[in-house]
Amino acid sequence: MKFRDVIHHARLEGTLVEVAAPTDPDLEMAQVILQHDGRPVLFTNVRGHPGWQVAAGIASSRDYFAMALKVGVEELIHTLAIAMENTVAPSVVKEAPCQEVVVETDLNLSRLPILRHFSCDGGPYVTSAVLILDDPDHGPNVCFHRLLKLDERRFAARVVENRGTDLALHKSSGDVPVAICIGNALPVLLAGSMSPPNDVDELEIANALSPTPVVRCKTVPLYVPADSEVVLEGRLTHTMAPEGPFVDLTETIDPVRPGPVIEIDCITHRRDPIYQALLPGKLEHKLLMGMPKEPTILAAVKRVCRCTNVAITPGGASWLHAVVQIAKRDPDDGKRAIEAAFQGHGSLKHVVVVDTDINPYDPAEVEWAIATRFQAQRDLVVLPDQPGSSLDPSGTHEPGQKARTTKMGLDATIPWGADRAAFEKIRYQ
Ligand SMILES: Cc1cc2nc3c(=O)[nH]c(=O)nc-3n(C[C@H](O)[C@H](O)[C@H](O)COP(=O)(O)O)c2cc1C
After folding, report:
1. Residue 355 has pLDDT above 90, yes or no
2. In a domain, 327, yes or no
3. Which residue in 250, 242, 244, 337 sits closest to 299, CA to CA?
4. Residue 286: which of 310, 315, 257, 309 has the closest Cα?
5. How many whole angstroms from 149 Cα to the centroid of ligand 1?
6. Sorting pLDDT into bands at 50, 70 and 90, what band is 408?
7. pLDDT band for position 162 (50/70/90)?
């Protein structure tokens, strides 16, 4: 299901908010998106950008992902996990919608309706883009990076340490060719937010989820989704510039840090482009950051015990907390699941392990399990001084270094060998 198909579907089902009034990408648009958080919004009259439309909220519900992958919501995590293990190389096309218009001279990023979201942000930010590069050892890598617009041709990127983009940049003495894709189908967005093993090309995951033909870029040796709305071709450089402040996933202000500069050399886009906006810190951001981590946690826990489900919870900013559901077969399965969950998602801070009779998506049920099945002196795992998320203000943050944190796991499963009947809720009948 392509980016535009989601808009069309939302219009048919009456959930699309269409804004015909002239709206400014500078601060005004974000407020309108905020009012309709959780719903797709289409701005058809973008102040200062004739010929452009702006869409937001495309990825703000699990229903849209399920619809895009033609599965039930409850099958999403398993469908993503299967696609990650069974990737399919995409077909290559010669002509592509994303290259209907090609701009290589008088290039100006102000051509794009890049939103300034909040007055405390460091400036206009591209927040929905996936960046593609070719790692010399592992091949193509696809990953989201927020991009602060510096001027007509340059961005400062937020590149978290020790992930694909950071590793590729540090391997190369010169600039790294990149392609930045904006306005993508949901499978591309999902895959771009996953962290598969380094040698897995996320576009092959996207293509395994739903056919995702690619086209070769005009000025860099990279392939991009043919159906993207906009592609910015350029170079990731070793020049650093102040990046931030920015309201990020935890809805706190992420501080200013040095970020690598990206120089744009070519812009291609559809004839009637729809720019994708993504409101930082709100539902769409949370779903796109958190949900793709559920299959990687599931895969990691399945390697040590019988894992039946995983939920990245909204209360943990859809990034720092997870609930892992297991069918316990061994006294140590709970503890094994805790340690494996931290392998499956590097930024995970706290995890609760529950039995199959507990719905991991229901915070009240999870708390009940902690209240009735957990004893701290027996079931608590505390791991001090671990690599943590740069987004957690309570962690330890040294410039240029990976954040540090203390991780905690709660095994809230029924104690091994106990009389299960004593721990199960009665059936009211
Ligand atoms: C909406 C969204 C915004 C993101 N912004 C950033 C960012 O600015 N910088 C970053 O390093 N990762 C960001 N991420 C996380 C990465 O995309 C994600 O961790 C990815 O899996 C890393 O891929 P890699 O391990 O293959 O490099 C973002 C993810 C999403 C969904």
Report:
1. yes
2. yes
3. 337
4. 315
5. 18
6. very high
7. confident
Residue 301 Cα to ligand 1 midpoint, Å, equals 22
Nearest CA to ligand 1 atom 20: 193
Dihedral (CA of 202, 33, 30, 250) sign = negative
For ligand 1, whether the C-beta of 164 sits within 6 Å is yes
Q: Is residue 255 part of a domain?
A: no
Domain holding 394, by residue range, is 288-422
Measured CA distances, 337 to 200, 255, 296, 381 (Å): 24, 34, 13, 11
Kindly give, in sequence order, each residue whose CB lies less than 8 Å from that of residue 53, ignoring residues fewer than 6 positions away.
42, 43, 44, 46, 272, 273, 274, 275
199 assigned to active site:
no
Name the residue at shortest CA distance from atom 18 of ligand 1.
193
Residue 364 placed within a domain: yes
For residue 171, is it within any domain?
no
Is residue 245 reached through a cis peptide bond, with omega within 30 degrees of 0 on the bond before it?
Answer: yes
34 lines ligand 1 (CB under 6 A): no
CATH number of the domain to which 386 belongs:
3.40.1670.10
Total domains in the chain come to: 1
Kindly name the residue from 121, 134, 201, 248 that is annotated as catalytic. 248
For 292-393, list the strands marked E by DSSP.
307-312, 321-326, 350-354, 380-387
